[in-house]
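(Structure overview)
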Amino acid sequence: MAREFGTTTVERETANAIPNVHTHAQSDHVGPQTPRARVRSGRVAAIGAWVGKSTWPAYCAAAVTAAYGLLKAYWVFGGDALWSIAPLSQEMIDKVRSGTAPTWFVIADAVSVVLAVVGFAFALATVRPKRWLPVWLVRWTLWPLATFMLLRGMLGIIGDLLQIASGESGPVTHTALWDLALWAPLFLIWGLLWAATALTYARRAPTTGHGVA
């Protein structure tokens, strides 16, 4: 009887020493997503499905780039329309109109026209039936460009709101109003289009060959 009692005691102590694996597994289990997180995930998935492998972001990016390039070219060749709403200081606008703008500004405007032509051609190259651009080239070109434009738009909106909220009047506030209404949203949309172009191009790329990143 003593041996049986001792054996029973050892078995009980051994059973108590073994951790309950199922209990720990249940405690480490991550709970379900909150309703807000599920809604957010659903929206992201819906946007991704809506964009899919479409080519319309590239065509839209090309159209915006062409319009911006034409406006820049018009200014480079002496046009003065829309200068009053350009996102520049009034002093610089007056110098441009009088033909006394700094050389660096004239060169920068000319370079922006060239970049617009390159951007227009690059956007259309991503929608060719035969995808010859490597995915890594599209990514390393368009994602930084999209990031720059999105930052320009967001920082512009913040600066414009601060300027308008200051209650000041004059050319600076006039520029901020037009930037908030036109230029900052334009750069935001432009940046999103470039990002969508890079994303959809990668989705359309073949899984073998030089199209793989």
In short: The chain has eight helices and no strands. The radius of gyration is 30 Å. The CA atoms of residues 95 and 102 lie 8 Å apart. The chain has one domain: 54-211.
